[in-house]
UniProtKB/TrEMBL annotation:
The keyword Signal does not apply. PROSITE patterns: MFS. Keywords: Membrane, Transmembrane, Transmembrane helix, Transport. The keyword Magnesium does not apply. It is a multi-pass membrane protein. It is found in: Membrane. It comes from Durio zibethinus (Durian). GO terms for cellular component: membrane. The gene is LOC111308722. This is Hippocampus abundant transcript-like protein 1 isoform X1.
């Protein structure tokens, strides 16, 4: 297991760099949005609805694109498909790196929405499929947990950097690291194309003659548009096993709750307790450190004796408790205390992905992970439509009282 993970070090570095570039702007984006749309206020209905609309549109795009990207990666390799979602996000980040005035914000908003429709979640989806190509079934839950731990470590480092950088410098650093991630991935990451050889998944392929030979001997790959999964293909995949369909239902409702928290929690904390960029960063930093320790060190120890199914149940239960604490927060310290629950909450996503991975064959890992990502994206369409009006009404009634 350790030797296999060392062989995947370039994948982990790629995920870390791309995650760092994505996460570093999160604490600042609420203040940037408020400054561009409602300067000088702590409560802004327009910002809530604009963010919710963007989240819904991105969810619609990713729901359509995730199965396609995952399926194409089964045909053409994970590295080839990683290039697109790692390159496109550089453009909107570069816009805010130049200026955060209202006009620049609207340009960022439009391009961010368009690029995220293709890119949101793609890197994680392809990285999971890459791991599934090279890790046996019994070890995937631990490997997926370690991958989530790498993402959490990127989150911690990015949030810590955001805590001490100015807003302008934050977006400049994000742009640079995004470009560095693409260059590193293209130079060092080896291609991985799944194949069935005596019932086993083919390991990482070296770039060169093996990949070229496969392209020459597989003329069916030239008919790329015949490989685009239809709605019927996705439904068939969801019905392929009861466990897979049940995992899809769990992924939907978990993402619905998570999407609701994302679309409302920061605006709620800003209006209720006057949180700013630094306090958002502190909150995220605590959660990220706890999550990193849990996913890298605790979860691998628990997978074998407990199993990924029970870890999923425990993680979902504690996620519910965390949402309850946020909803009844009576003081600014309550959200900070609730972040301690992240040590268990983070068990859920890698456990769910591990269960999904075990239900499909070696040539369908990208399609399966893409399908679950698409289901999660459907939830992200619905979440802001439900939670944005609820958040706005809640804050309005509180301020009116």
């Amino acid at each position: 297991m350790e030797k296999k993970l060392k062989g995947l070090s370039h994948l982990f570095v790629t995920v870390f760099l791309s995650g760092f570039a994505s996460f570093i702007v999160v604490p600042a984006i609420t203040d940037v949005t408020m400054f561009a749309l409602c300067p000088g206020t702590d409560e802004c209905s327009l910002a809530i609805y604009v963010s919710g609309f963007q989240q819904a549109v991105i969810g619609l795009g990713t729901a359509l694109m995730m199965p396609l990207i995952g399926n194409l990666s089964d045909q053409y390799g994970r590295k080839a498909l990683l290039t697109l979602p790692m390159t496109l996000p550089i453009i909107p980040l570069a816009i805010l790196a130049c200026s955060r005035t209202t006009n620049y914000f609207y340009a960022y908003y439009a391009l961010r929405t368009l690029t995220a429709m293709v890119c949101e979640g793609s890197i994680n989806c392809l990285a999971l499929a890459y791991l599934a190509d090279n890790i046996s079934d019994g070890q995937r839950a631990s490997a997926f947990g370690i991958l989530s731990g790498i993402s959490s470590a990127a989150f911690v480092c990015a949030t810590l950097a955001a805590r001490f950088l100015s807003t302008g410098s934050t977006f400049q650093v994000a742009t640079f690291v995004s470009m560095l991630a693409v260059v590193y991935m293209r130079i060092f990451l080896e291609e991985s194309i799944p194949d069935q050889v005596d019932g086993m998944t083919q390991p990482i392929l070296k770039e060169g003659e093996d990949v070229i030979q496969k392209d020459v001997n597989a003329p069916e790959r030239t008919t790329v548009f015949k490989k685009i999964p239809s709605l019927g293909d996705i439904i068939c995949l969801l019905k392929s096993s009861p466990s897979f369909s049940q995992a899809a239902v769990v992924a939907f409702f978990n993402s619905l709750a998570e999407g609701g928290m994302i679309s409302s929690s920061m605006y709620y904390l800003k209006a209720r307790f006057h949180f700013n960029k630094n306090q958002f960063a502190d909150l995220m930093l605590i959660a990220g450190i706890v999550a990193t320790i849990s996913q890298l060190f605790i979860m691998p120890l628990l997978v074998s004796p407990i199993g990924d199914g029970r870890l999923l149940s425990i993680g979902l239960l504690v996620t519910f408790v965390n949402a309850i604490l946020y909803s009844i927060a009576w003081s600014a310290w309550v959200p900070y205390a609730a972040t301690a629950l992240s040590i268990v909450m983070v068990f859920a996503p890698p456990s769910l992905r591990s269960i999904v991975s075990k239900q499909t064959g070696a040539r369908e890992q990208g399609k399966a992970q893409g399908c679950i990502s698409g289901v999660s994206s459907l939830a992200n369409i619905i979440a802001p439509l439900i939670f944005s009006p609820l958040t706005d009404d809640s804050l309005r009634s509180e301020f009116d009282d």
